[in-house]
Amino acid sequence: MKFNKCKFLSCSILVTNRTENNHPRSYFFGLQFRLLSISIAMTAIAILCDCSKLVQVDSPPTSLTSDNIYSNDATAASVLTGLYTGMAKTSILWAENLNSIGLVSGLSSDELTLYGAAANGNAKLVQFYQNHLNGGAANLSDPTIWKNLYANLYIVNLAIERLSGSTSLTPSVKQQLLGEATFLRAFFYFYLVNLYGDVPLTTASNYQVNSKLSRSSSTDVYAQIIRDLKDAESLLSDYYVASDAKTRTSDRLRPNKWSASALLSRVYLYTGDWVNAEVKATEVINNKVMYDTVSVSNVFLKNSKESIWQLQPVNMGWNTEDARAFIIPSSGPTSSSSVDGYPVYLSDNLINAFEPGDLRKDQWINSVVVNGNVRYYYPYKYKSASLNATITEYGTVLRVAEQYLIRAEARAEQSKIDGAKNDLNSVRTRAGLPGTTAADKNSLLPAIQQERQRELFTEWGHRWLDLKRTGKIDEWMPSVSPLKESTWSPNWKWYPIPQYDIIQNQNLQQNLGY
Q: Which of 49, 75, 207, 296, by CA, is between 20 and 30 Å from 134?
């Protein structure tokens, strides 16, 4: 592992490899999970690094287990720090981790083009691009987004159990960490239910029970997400805290109350609860002291006032993994999807969606011309892709512009036409565009979806999820698939469950079409 601007301490740490009932390994929906891996992922950056901001804690006890890691503030906070670190550190081109969601969903939808397509050296990227996934990983050595989401869910479920029973933590730290864990559980389940459909639902860490669970309905999963986010709102601080989970900081790296409200507004939108979607988005938007839209050029800078939750870069010498993966050098795209490859570029569908004079096209999209005549456009929201450049950008997960678009859609669905237009125009005006000409519900709703396409491209799967939740995917994808040398099946709106988990758990059924 490499971390940004960290100097390693010379402390020695023994991490025991023990789970409940003294089992050396545990299974979670067929996932073989070692406590050693948990401890390294959760504590290495926080304990071994003498860094500022997110990754600074005191020296730990010499032996850490799932029992005593929650016995003091520093090591308890490091559990969740490890999750944030894991979300930020891997290359998005590996197509298996949470920060890959923007890439794989962009390939699955109409945002990204895969260079060389069928000739591309990465079978995973080809499968996402052509919507022909092969049924997922057959064994544990082949990681997937599903596997990583459930691994993270094991961590947060265990954290909630241990934190709830702890009597040695500072009360404010315990409350903050419980809030973060419940927020993260909601966040992870949000992507599971939107990428895979009905999924196994558990709020416990008992692997013997979890490994036999069948799929729960999306309705039940969403109900749990809403419960968790309401709990998170009541537990999390109003302000942002540092790595110790109590000191105020300007870095927006650990979720706060407003992060929970922002995600809750999205969940209400997805579930058709227009009233509460409007209410929650309004709460965030009205907090002008902390949040507001900023100029197009400043949206993705670290601690931008538009950001509600960000991820700190942790790979030594680099800013965001988005910039490293998306910014194509002058030599042009490549078929390689290694950390130094550039296999994707923006599709004509996306480029042609922008109106003339849109500042987002000017400042969030760049291009290279290869051999004097072929131009490739690429995402340029994150601009720093040089080794050892000053850290100026943080990966943005939640931001204010989405809240305006959520409220615009919720208001339009309630026929609050003037309010919906005002919210839509808040985003358009920032982009240098005139006010919308849409004047009723039937014209506003597609206008809002088009604005979401232009505003949120390549960010955390918005376009792919929007096509599904609005029921437009089967209408739109048959015209997109031939451009990918593919065909479309309605079954493919859900990704397949890894075959290994199907084999291990006879109660777990595969999605149709795989």
A: 207
Burial (0-12, 13-18, 19+ Cβ within 10 Å), 424 = buried
Give Cα 246 distance to the centre of its chain: 24
CA neighbours closer than 13 Å in the CB half-sphere of residue 21: 7
Return the H-helix or E-strand segment holding 302: none
Q: How far is CA 48 from the centre of its chain?
A: 26
| β-bridge pairing 14-15 and 63-64 | parallel
Model-wide pTM > 0.85: yes
Q: What is the pLDDT of residues 474-503, one digit of tens each?
A: 999 999 999 999 999 999 999 999 998 999
Residues in the chain: 514
Angle between helices 171-196 and 257-270 (to 10 degrees): 20
Rounded CA-CA distance 200/221 in Å is 8
Q: What are phi and psi of 376, to 5 degrees?
A: -120, 125
Vertex 202: Cα angle to 186 and 262 (nearest 5) = 5
Is 47 strand, coil or helix? helix
Residue 39: count of CB within 10 angstroms of its CB: 24
DSSP string, 177-243: HHHHHHHHHHHHHHHHHHHHSSB---SS--HHHHTT--PBPHHHHHHHHHHHHHHHHHHS-SS-B-T
Helix H or strand E segment including 186: helix 171-196
DSSP state of 435: P
Q: Of 66, 16, 74, 68, which Cα lies nearest the Cα of 45?
A: 74
Which residues, 6+ apart, have CB-to-CB distance to 475 below 8 Å? none
Q: What is the pLDDT of residues 148-184, one digit of tens each?
A: 999 999 999 999 999 999 999 999 999 999 999 999 9
- Helix, strand, coil percent content, the chain, rounded in steps of 5: 50, 10, 40
CA neighbor of 438 nearest in space, from 421, 422, 460, 455: 421
